[in-house]
Request: fold
Amino acid sequence: MKWLFVLLLALIIFGGAAWFGYNTFVKEEIEVQKEQRGEITPPPVVDVSLPEFEAAVKLRQDGKLAETRDALLAFIQKYPAGKHLDEARDLLGEVNSQILLSRYPSPEKTEYIVKSGDVLAKIARKLKTTPEMIMRMNNMSGTMLRIGDHLLISNPDFSMVIHRKSNLVVLLNHGVFFNQYHIREAKLAPKQPPKITTKVAETMAWKGGQRVGLGSKDYLSSTKWIRLAGAAGHTLYSVPDSTHPDLEQPAPPTGLGLAATDLEELSTLVNNRTPVTIID
Reply:
C-alpha cells in the first residue's frame, strides 16, 4: 500500500506542476497567438455613462424639462467624449427649444402686458426679439393682440455655426450651445472657402410658390427657408420629414437641406442680425 501512496503523491505533485505550467506559459502563449490572429473578441467595455443618460431621458419623459436640462448639461460636462454625447446634445437641444418656445416657466423669460396701440412687430422691436418667437412662446395662432394680454418674452442672443463636414447646424445662445440641427442634404459647389463669416439675410416663407408674410393666414402652414448674406449657394431650405411629408416649394439649385420641422423652428429663432460662421 505504501507504493500506492507514493504513486498518488507523485501524480498530485507532477500533475499540479503540469497544470501550473500549462496555465502560466502554454495557455498564455496560445491566447496571445489567438489575439494576434484576431480570433479573440475583447471583453465589452462597460458603459459607465449610460445610467446617467437614461436618468436624464426619464426626466424628459416625466415632463421635468428644467431638471432634464440641468442633468444633460452636467452629463455633457462630465463625459465630453462619451458614447452618448451626440444623443445628449440632440436631447438638450430639444429641451432648450421646448422650454423657450412655450409658456413653460423659465428664469430667462419676462412678462409683458399688452397696452393700447401695441402690435406684435412693435413689441418685438422694442423688446429685441422676433414676432415669430413671441407667437411660438405664447401659443398664438395669429398676430392679433388684445389689451391686457400677458405675453412671455425672452431675449436670446443667437449665433449660428455651420459644420459642413459633420453636417450640423449648431445654434448658440450667448455663445453657449443651445441646439443642433442635422443637415439632410448638401448641394454646394465642390470648392468652398475653409471659413465663411456672414449673417442671416432673411427668413422666407413659401406657400403655393409665392412668398407669404407673417400676418398671412397661410404663414403657419408655409415652407420655411433661411437665406444667408454674401455666401453664394448657402440657403437653408426645407426637405420633407415625417411631420411635413409633402412640400409644395421645390428646393433651390444649391444650398443645405434640413428637415422641414427643424427649419420651421430655426427660422423662428434667427433674424437678419444673427451672425453665421461656416466652417469645414
The radius of gyration is 30 Å.
